[in-house]
Write a structure and sequence with these properties.
binds ligand LWWEY6Y5, about 325 residues, metal-binding, NAD(P)-bd_dom_sf, alpha/beta, 15 helices, Rossmann fold, about 10% strand, binds NADPH dihydro-nicotinamide-adenine-dinucleotide phosphate, binds magnesium ion, ketol-acid reductoisomerase activity, NADP binding, amino-acid biosynthesis
């Protein structure tokens, strides 16, 4: 049985009198900093000079320092820069300023699991990994809710690492939804698997393949967009509230019959075998090695792919249709 912690299991006052440094002010960074501050915590932000986030964090009311200064001033250091940037930042700007009793935290276990960061034994090392994109995590918190998270302890020098990590999770609002105890290994492997196979890779390529199939057959792109992308959110909302059964209760019996008949032909044995292969590449470290190497080369494949994907016809038609639905609060990817 999973061990799941809720609000009553966590004591926020453990963080009172401590300063928390949030390193990075991107998707997760801004949400951690703002949720923790709203929960009464003392938060500063650590960035590099010239960061495009520096002014934003300042405008949001946080003291901002270069990373070494933020680490020196703080008791709890949460590492929220991109995974591939963490090892060098840790070596150059974090490790020299850690001292016994400080806590180093992560929102994803990649660099600990794959041996890219090896902290000294006299500090606590823990993780609170929200199961949500940072921007949604902030919005849900402001609405009075919270997103689920995983908690793990890699090193417990003080004997307080779990209780302190749970206090941090409460500050984020995650104990409102449930915080599951795990290990860095389980979090890393399941997170990478989920984002590659379902949440990001699986869903986006399912959408594109269905969209392209309709376009190639001569249907209108606008209809293909509404059918394959826009309505997906409305269908997922039903699953989010009541599981697959509630979605199937709400759709027509014709749709439910088509679900049982055709779904397994799309997600067939070949797809399941590929999922197993991807999981194995994650567990063996092959994926991590490839991603580390791609970053060392300056991300040529990643950057080319990102540019190509942004030009896909579904993006253009989607932009035009969303512009007619201002209540969706349409977003653009910021330039740069
Ligand atoms: N995105 C998400 O929702 C989730 C992410 N995570 C994990 O959270 C961590 C952070 O990811 P994410 O929020 O996506 O990252 P983002 O790319 O959104 O943000 C990274 C931030 O770090 C800053 N930064 C980059 N390099 C440095 C550096 N060398 N020194 C100081 N600051 C730096 C960036 O500055 P600038 O703005 O100038 O580029 C930016 O503010 C990762 O471990 C990730 O796996 C976990 C759960 C969900
Ligand atoms: C699903 C992608 C994610 O794992 C997340 C938002 O949880 C990430 O790494 O951003
Ligand atoms: Mg995730
Ligand atoms: Mg992830």
């Amino acid at each position: 049985m999973a061990r799941i912690y809720y609000d009553a299991d966590a004591d926020l006052s453990r963080l009172h009198g401590k300063r928390i440094a949030i390193l990075g002010y991107g998707s997760q960074g801004h949400a951690h900093a703002q949720n923790l501050r709203d929960s009464g915590c003392d938060v500063c932000v650590g960035l590099y000079r010239g960061s495009k986030s520096w002014e934003k964090a300042q405008a949001d009311g946080f003291p901002v320092y270069e990373v070494p200064e933020a680490v020196r001033r703080s008791d709890v250091i949460m590492m929220l820069v991109p995974d591939p940037a963490q090892p060098a930042l840790y070596r150059e700007a974090v490790a020299p300023h850690l001292s016994p009793g400080k806590t180093l935290m992560f929102a994803h276990g990649f660099n600990i699991r794959f041996g890219q960061i090896i902290p000294p034994p006299d500090i606590d090392v823990s993780m609170v990994a929200p199961k949500a994109p940072g921007h949604r995590m902030r919005e849900v918190f402001r609405e009075g809710g919270g997103v689920p998270a995983l908690v793990a302890v890699h090193q417990d020098a003080t004997g307080q690492a779990l209780a302190n990590a749970l206090a941090y999770a409460k500050g984020l609002g995650c104990t409102r939804a449930g915080v599951i105890e795990t290990t860095f290994t389980e979090e890393t492997e399941t997170d990478l698997f989920g984002e590659q196979v379902v949440l990001c890779g699986g869903v986006s390529h399912l959408i594109k393949a269905a969209f392209e199939t309709l376009i190639e057959a001569g249907y209108q792109p606008e209809i293909a967009y509404f059918e394959c992308l826009h309505e997906l959110k409305l269908i997922v909302d039903l699953m989010y509230q009541g599981g697959l059964s509630y979605m199937r209760y709400s759709v027509s019996d014709t749709a439910e019959y088509g679900d049982y008949r055709s779904g397994p032909r799309v997600i067939d044995d070949h797809v399941r075998a590929t999922m197993k292969q991807i999981l194995e590449e994650i567990r063996s470290g092959a994926f991590a090695e490839e991603w580390i190497e791609e970053n060392a080369k300056g991300r040529p494949w990643f950057n080319a792919k990102r540019a190509e994907e942004r030009k896909h016809p579904i993006e253009e038609v989607g932009r035009q249709l969303r512009a007619m639905m201002p209540w969706l609060n349409p977003k653009e990817v910021p330039a740069g």
